[in-house]
UniProtKB/TrEMBL annotation:
Entry protein name: L-ascorbate metabolism protein UlaG, beta-lactamase superfamily
Domain Metallo-beta-lactamase: from-to ranges: 7-190
Domain of life: Bacteria
Amino acid sequence: MKYTCYGHSCFAVEIMGKKILFDPFITHNELAAKVDIHAITADYIFVSHGHEDHTADLLDLAKRTNATVVSNFEIVTWAGKQGIEKLHPMNTGGKWKFEFGTVKCVVAQHSSSLPDGTYGGNPMGFIFMTEEGNFYYAGDTALTVDMELIPAVTSLDFAVLPIGDNFTMGIEDAIAAAEMIECEKIIGVHYNTFGYVKIDTDEAKMQFIDAGLELLLPEIGSTIEV
């Protein structure tokens, strides 16, 4: 499965020929200045919650690419009022079989409001179960014992976890989360974009190695195979 990093918590995966984009925040991220947002294509855009650092480019990208926006009921309703036509509402605990595989929504412990102050509903994580592999995107979240339920849903090939601390899990909690979800390969997101989430990436990788885990931190704009 191809994983493309666009900075912060924005990334894309290609599954069964479909391009799936997550939490689009590019044009307001100085670290992603070299990313050509106009070259990005998407068949689906999944949104974990409403904060601006996850939705700043949502409307423009959805309109240009004609992607289907998938998120909780409140965010999908809001996007519809902004002129987005292709929408799929979901909510915590639910699952749906898409053309590329099945997605189940799970708990994320965080807050959620949209850039204009609109209530953003409950934040969520997503478990993707596909013929090309299974992965978990946690969204912005604290460490929560609900993660212990994930291995009962499916076995994971990799997981995408926030590691920047302050607003989300930090390194220690992300390691604990990896153990709860029984996943050894972790891709870190939500770090180094702002002063509040600065981390020592070399130290973070060593902490994961010491725990018997692998932490991948792909460069912005790069594509890796996972």
